[in-house]
Amino acid sequence: MQLLPIFLIIAVFYFLLIRPQQRRQKQLQETIASLKTGDRVITNGGIIGVITMVRESTFLIRSADKTILEVARTAIADIDHEKQAG
User: Fold this and answer.
1) Long-range residue pairs from 28-32, CB within 8 A, at least 24 positions apart, any chain
2) If residue 26 lies in a helix (H) or strand (E), which one and from where to where?
3) Phi and psi dihedrals of 61, rounded to 5?
4) Which residue, 76, 60, 71, 84, is CA-closest to 28?
5) CA dihedral angle for residue 23, residue 26, residue 28, residue 29, rounded to 10 degrees
6) Which candidate among 3, 6, 9, 22 keeps its CA 20 to 30 Å from the CA of 82?
7) CA 67 to CA 69: how far, in whole Å?
8) Cα–Cα distance between 76 and 79 in angstroms, integer?
9) Tell me, what's the pLDDT at 84?
10) Residue 2 CB neighbour total at 10 angstroms
11) Do 43 and 35 touch, CB atoms closer than 8 A?
12) How confident is the model at residue 83 (pLDDT cuts 50, 70, 90)?
C-alpha cells in the first residue's frame, strides 16, 4: 500500500513527460528522413538554410550569404515552415 503513491507518480511522469518526448523524437526522425533538396531547415545551432544536396549521413546547406555548409543529419532541429524555397 505504501508503494502505490510511488507507482502513481511514475505513471504520471511517463504519460506527461516521457511518452510525448518519444513521440516528438520519432516525428523528428521521420521528418529528417523525408528531407529533400530545396527544403529550408533550421539546425540546432540556429542556422537557417536551404538543402542543396542530400548525402547518406550529411546535408549540404546553402545559407543566406550563399555559403555552403555540410551538416550532420542529427544537427537538423526543424523545417522552416514560414518560407519554403521555391
Assistant:
1) 28/78, 31/78, 31/79, 32/73, 32/76
2) helix 19-33
3) -120, 135
4) 76
5) 180
6) 22
7) 6
8) 8
9) 53
10) 5
11) no
12) low
**What pLDDT shows up at residue 37?**
95
| Residue 86 cell numbers, joined | 521555391
Integer Cα distance of 19 and 3 in angstroms: 22
At position 73, the amino acid (one-letter code) is: R
C-alpha distances (whole Å) from 42 to each of 8, 12, 14, 39, 67 are 38, 32, 29, 10, 15
85 pLDDT exceeds 60? no
What is the longest distance spanned by two Cα atoms in the chain? Answer: 65
Contacts of 53 (CB under 8 A, 6+ apart): 37, 59, 60
**For residue 10, what is its C-alpha cell?**
511514475
Cell numbers placing 79: 523545417
Q: Are 12 and 28 in contact (CB under 8 A)?
A: no
